[in-house]
Specification:
- The protein has 118 residues and is mostly beta strands.
- Helix content is 10%, strand content 37%.
- The protein is globular and about 45 Å long.
């Protein structure tokens, strides 16, 4: 079960998740992982993270040129993610303002792995 956008209904299944993830990765240039908290044990764990996702200015899609701070929750049961919910921490979409400090620095995000050819 997952939801990459809080305005959309929950989606289910590995294939649906792959389609969503591939669409994002094709437009994504990297991320900075800022905080990670895990609670639980071997049978079940909940992981909360805070990250910033970067989308290149010359990219495609509605997030082109944006750096979006995101909170995410993962539920892990028996070593597998069974639930994944992402929620942007700022308004996103056409016309949404970017708060100061969330623009990617020149040359891409610091410390984030650049996806693609290199």
């Amino acid at each position: 079960m997952f939801r990459g956008d809080p305005s959309e209904p929950l989606q289910y299944g590995r294939d649906a998740f792959r389609r969503l993830a591939q669409g994002v990765i094709n437009r994504w240039s990297g991320m900075d992982l800022q905080e990670v908290y895990g609670v639980g044990g071997e049978a079940e764990t909940v992981v909360l993270i805070k990250r910033v996702d970067y989308f290149p200015a010359n990219g495609r899609g509605p997030f082109s040129g944006m750096a979006i701070p995101v909170a995410a929750m993962f539920r892990v049961k028996n070593g597998k993610i069974t639930e994944w919910l992402d929620a942007p921490l700022i308004p996103v979409g056409p016309g949404a303002p970017l708060p100061p400090g969330f623009r990617p620095p020149p040359g891409g995000p610091g410390g984030a792995k650049q996806l693609g050819g290199n």
